[in-house]
Amino acid sequence: MHGGFRLLRFAPELEREFRRYLDRHARISQRLAALLLIFAVSGYLYCEHRLFDLADTGWLTTLTLLRLLQILPGVVVLVLTFYSRRFRAQANRMFPVLLVMVGMLAALIDIRFETLDAELNFRYGAGLLIVASFFFLGVTFWWALLCAVLIVLADVCMASLILSAEQMPEHWIAVSYYLLLLIIGAISRYVHEYSQRDQFLTRQLLGWVAEHDALSGLANRRSHDRALPQRIAQARRDRRPLSLLLLDLDDFKAYNDTFGHPAGDALIRTFGELLAGFARRPLDEAARVGGEEFALLLYNCDNAAAQRIARQVITALAALDIRHPHDSAARVGVSIGIATLQDGQQAEQLYHCADTALYQAKSGGKNRFAVAAGLLRPEPQLH
Question: Do 23 and 147 reside in the same domain of the chain?
């Protein structure tokens, strides 16, 4: 992760989340930048038409068209960012392209003024766009750097085609100015984005800690209590089954007393990793809700499928061959209570059904599962 940090690049999944984070925080900046572009170019256009005599140069009509083309990206960005979410996403993808387009137009206007013997000579408009490339506009450092480099290269290419050999030495001074702005802007943007990524990671870590159990790595009780009513509501909207499994490691206190707390912690971690493998779908959740008690929330999972998963969990734990604290020939097991959402049930009632089934499983000999009947307060069935 630190290697990616220095290169301002995370792992793909985290990088996508960071891009979404940038998008959320760059919306106002993009709108302000678009408005500033519109007003600045409009001001240039007004001055060129009203305060200076460019009619004799034969270039005023072309200049006006180029200025209007510079204004167009600002209008496009404003329209897209104020429209629907899908169009806002398009604006984020288009922003680097539009930025380079405006920069190239500014460079072309600068170069054309260099060829004219006119009183007005607005210079270094491309330089302003190079600096703007490194503003916080929802564009990452590498995209900003690419935009700035493309503007400089476009300026050099157009100058070599338009300017005479006698005019090029003076233009190289402008290019050196652009390169200096590029270096200063790149350094500033790098430092700024490094700080952004550091803050993003800190927020992600704090959010993860608040929602997860540190020992098992699973969701904690707080996260589970919030997810359960949300999944119930979604299951009812989608008309999908929802099953809740409550799991309790058998004789965990005796295991702790016999082998010590480090061994008990290792068992919690091992079982957490095992349980996480059964909650890989986006709407499933594995949680540690107590000392040795866990919950497995399975979306679009009916009672028959939940029973199959319960058997698989028991079998997978047995395959780990973890010694039982009371019997060297026996192995650590898990008791499971299963409840499937019924019409009219709320989160507390579903949890109560699973908890009652878990109690029955432990009372019936442990290392087994029990299924709650389809009532709000069921009599569990042993398996």
Answer: yes
Smallest CA-to-CA distance from 331 within 238, 266, 267 is with: 267
Residue 269 domain-assigned?
yes
In a domain, 261, yes or no: yes
216 belongs to a structural domain: no
CA–CA separation, 260 and 263 (whole Å)? 6
Long-range Cβ contacts of 200-206 (<8 Å, 24+ apart): 200/18, 200/21, 201/1, 201/5, 204/14, 204/17
Query: What does 24-47 look like in DSSP terms, one character per residue?
Result: HHHHHHHHHHHHHHHHHHHHHHHH
Beta bridge pairs of residue 323: 331
> In 10 A of CB 294, how many CB atoms?
27
Same domain flag for 194 and 248? no
Range of the domain at 309: 221-382
Per-residue pLDDT tens digits for 190-227: 998 898 888 888 888 888 888 889 899 999 999 999 99
Q: Are residues 303 and 272 in the same domain?
A: yes
Q: What is the pLDDT of residues 307-341, one digit of tens each?
A: 999 999 999 999 998 887 776 656 789 999 999 99
- 241 by DSSP, 3-state: which? coil
* 35 and 143 both lie in a single domain: yes
Locus of tokens 């089934």: 357
All residues at 6 or more sequence positions from 155 whose CB lies less than 8 Å from its CB, including other chains: 104, 107, 110, 111, 126, 174, 175, 178
Tell whether the torsion through CA atoms of 202, 206, 207 and 212 is positive or negative.
Answer: positive
Residues 366 and 251 in one domain: yes
Token pair recorded at residue 94: 């288009």
